């Protein structure tokens, strides 16, 4: 047995961690499926939909964005900021970094403008800032082979991080936790160490569905997800934020992975319900059919905003991390990010080969996320609108498809609005633990925490 004190201790630990575990979705700067650039009303509607999702008690109140810039302007703050203020949605901000210094400068200027304009109404909602999104994946051997688009070198990302810290130093966001979002394959690549050294946290984008070179049926998904998490935490020694994950309700078979509602429900129940409230999590994604469903559709609601499956976690059997207290740890020493350090059967990427074998996390995802963003940014303002949605479509299943698209975008794109892909919203609140807004939600939350904690306790004993 599990001693009562053990369980209580685990619960206490989980509860304290939960206070900061935001829950939300990724929100692109443009409508899905090659839609137009989103404006205030679009963001406000989406943030409200997220909060009203049936059975979730308003917990999905945080949004991850990919850009600070409102398309098609040069450096006006994205209208998502005003929408977040009006809906009390917390924000994980994003700076698009694969379109060069000028765009990064515009991104920083847009953020500074927003701070001046909105003050603490805005800055109090900001829970983090990611400088870049999958730029290192796109810059990798796999990313290049898969034509995922233009990426950035680690030294560039590190430079942009320093510029961002400097620009924010005299502002209310001077202490905002700054990270970078990428795939596990990038985090275990020792050549990217400069980025690891420069950040406060690392973002993990993980999509077992796309890991087509590995056994990736829905039954294998929890192992693939947690392997990616684990190697990222081990290689970086930094707190890992779950910046993108999800399972599509429709799309092609990717090796053993099938895209359908049943498997998307299972992924939500086993992975989502293990994450919500226990890790900072921005799901991919809220709405993908906007207005038309892309070939590979990740949304949790349909075009009429109705959930595709049960989002309550009530009947879920979450599969927690096999690493006992895997809460994001910053503890472990930062081992070098070298690939070699990872070993073990599962481990992904110890060498280039492995890495490539696991295209998914990175690649696939990246394609997605990646693609989206880039598109947005496109230099051409007109083109910028395409963004996000696109990305997914791009991605489409296999390599070739998506990538091409993505690359196309990328090339054209500049930074601008970037953003595309999807960002998520959510605030922590609801989640199980923590900060739930309402008593009800906290009840749900605590229930989840308890389940997770007990499961964790069993693993420990
Ligand atoms: C490792 O990272 C470097 C720098 O981002 C990149 O050039 C290289 O291609 C990556 N290695 C692999 C195997 O992808
Ligand atoms: C490209 O991505 C696909 C999956 O989308 C993967 O099977 C393939 O291995 C990747 N190619 C390379 C070279 O990594
Ligand atoms: C986590 O990763 C480390 C290093 O790669 C490995 O030694 C350990 O066995 C992994 N743990 C799990 C539970 O997979
Ligand atoms: C970018 O978009 C269109 C369509 O691709 C293209 O014809 C044009 O040359 C570029 N600009 C824009 C808007 O797309």
TrEMBL record:
Keyword match Glycoprotein: yes
Superkingdom of the organism of origin: Eukaryota
EC code(s) of this entry: 3.2.1.39
Keyword match Membrane: yes
Gene Ontology biological-process entries: cell wall organization; polysaccharide catabolic process
Composition-biased stretches (Polar residues): 384-417
GO molecular function: glucan endo-1,3-beta-D-glucosidase activity
Topology in the lipid bilayer: Lipid-anchor; GPI-anchor
Pfam families: Glyco_hydro_17
Signal peptide: 1-19
Feature: compositional bias, Low complexity: 322-349, 357-382
Annotated Gene Ontology cellular component terms: cell surface; extracellular region; fungal-type cell wall; plasma membrane; side of membrane
Record's keyword terms, sorted: Carbohydrate metabolism, Cell membrane, Cell wall, Cell wall biogenesis/degradation, Glycoprotein, GPI-anchor, Hydrolase, Lipoprotein, Membrane, Polysaccharide degradation, Secreted, Signal, Transmembrane, Transmembrane helix
Region (Disordered): 319-439
Transmembrane intervals: 439-460
Location(s), subcellular: Cell membrane; Secreted, Cell wall
Catalytic activity from the UniProt record: Hydrolysis of (1->3)-beta-D-glucosidic linkages in (1->3)-beta-D-glucans
Family per record: Belongs to the glycosyl hydrolase 17 family.
Reported function: Glucanases play a role in cell expansion during growth, in cell-cell fusion during mating, and in spore release during sporulation. This enzyme may be involved in beta-glucan degradation and also function biosynthetically as a transglycosylase.
Protein name: Probable glucan endo-1,3-beta-glucosidase eglC
Record organism: Drechslerella dactyloides
